[in-house]
Amino acid sequence: MELATARLRLDRLRHGDAAALLAYRADPAVSRYQGWRPASLDDAAGFIQRQQAVVFDTLGSWFQFALRLRDSGELVGDLGLHFVDADTVEFGVTLSPAHQGRRLAAEAVRAALALMFDDLKRHRVYASVDPRNIACIALLERLGMRKEAHFRESWRDGDAWADDVVYAMLAREWGGRG
Ligand SMILES: CC(C)(COP(=O)(O)OP(=O)(O)OC[C@H]1O[C@@H](n2cnc3c(N)ncnc32)[C@H](O)[C@@H]1OP(=O)(O)O)[C@@H](O)C(=O)NCCC(=O)NCCS
Fold it and tell me: 100: Cβ below 6 Å to ligand 1?
């Protein structure tokens, strides 16, 4: 599965991406509100290895797109799609700090939303985010997603309890945006 936007190419992660993936995913500022942080090059390579076996749109699986600059091919981030069931998809997006603040994530997510709603005819797409993650919340609101839940102290963040908010979009809310 491959997608293209004005500035990005979305395709599969490759073995050669491990060092670049590690560099931004292990950055504490990037992993602060995320469930996975690679501890080593082996960890990043293992993640990519497991992704090679994932068949796109398999219910229950996460498929991780690589986000590459169209011009240079540089890996600048990744976008995960969780095929929850036949109607519902969850996503998460991550950008290398060097490429944040250019609305690249919105460009990538819009392409993924078009694929989910227009091509795969999904009914609902959602993202779950820590309410302290201001950049991510700004992104979700800019995309026109609705805040539909705020769970109090729903997950353990080290020694503390943390909240979790859910933003969603329905197919009929996407209509016209693509
Ligand atoms: C969330 C993330 C993907 C956004 O990517 P991005 O391409 O840099 O996003 P944008 O350039 O559209 O910026 C997002 C918005 O956050 C705002 N923002 C960024 N940092 C901010 C801060 N510290 N305080 C307030 N607003 C901030 C930007 O101004 C922008 O708002 P706007 O669109 O209204 O102008 C990126 O910050 C990231 O990778 N974060 C680390 C990983 C992560 O937590 N991912 C979320 C998991 S779902």
Answer: yes
The answer to the question of residue 149 being in a domain is: no
Per-residue model confidence as pLDDT tens digits over 31-89: 999 989 999 999 999 999 999 999 999 999 999 999 999 999 999 999 999 999 999 99
- Say if 57 falls within a structural domain: yes
CA dihedral 100, 49, 84, 127 (to 10 degrees): -10
Ligand 1 centroid distance, CA of 117 (Å): 24
Q: Are 164 and 148 in contact (CB under 8 A)?
A: no
Whichever domain contains 72, its CATH number is 3.40.630.30
Q: Is residue 106 part of a domain?
A: yes
Our answer on whether the CB atom of 104 is closer than 6 Å to any ligand 1 atom is: yes
